[in-house]
Amino acid sequence: MPKFSANLGFLWPGLDLPAKLQAAAKAGFRTVELHWPYEMPAADLRKHLDDAGLALFGLNTPVGHAGNGDFGLAAQPGREDEFRDTFRNTLEYARKAGASAIHVMAGTVTPETRMKASDVLVGNLVHAAASAPDMTLLLEPINQRDKPGYFYSTIAEAVKIIGAVGTANVKVMFDCYHVGVTGGADDVVPRLEEFIDDIHHVQIAAVDSRAEPDEGDLDYRTVFSALERLGYEGRIGCEYKPRGDTDEGLAWVKTLGVAL
After folding, report:
1. Which of 134, 120, 193, 207 is nearest to 167 (CA)?
2. Is 140 a catalytic residue?
3. What sections of the protein cross the membrane (predicted)?
């Protein structure tokens, strides 16, 4: 049976973080994942997690300066020191909050800077992986429709980067939504089968609305069946944007024949 985590970047919008944690626990989740919780001190987050009886899977590195179009720093030439400073702070926060994984956000690049950006990303990941042997660093390909210019958009590209880094604690975050938008819904299960050994975390949302996973072109029954067949034992992150009320939308669990 799949094991799910609630991505509180999207679920229960309108609630503050402590209320989201309580809502996730009430709904039946036992694990959560976050985007950028840094406004709350890590010790306070840990206390709220403990009070709700929840474990924290992971969080994202900061995007940089969102007002300037940043969506990650790890592949930004000339900003290596900035990335390493923010990663050091993220790592400290993740450890104090009890996370076991960090999504390292590469950011957007121009065609002219791609070659240099590739070297920068690998160098930054080598540095980050060496400083965080107790943490899994995740690479998530993001589709070009939602984030034009993001450094990589396919699982194959992410796996190539992982090979260049050459450390065991850098893995793929396989977001079925992004894979489905990039290559089509029929491409999701074949990519799971091809790259399962490199995958540490899976996320789900409808293709291509990004709503609850009981609609759209991708039948998640086939995804869950494939993950079971392939021996995947990690969490499945519910990183979707609810159509309406989050609790009402959780009817997808029953529709797809699974349980939280």
Report:
1. 134
2. yes
3. none
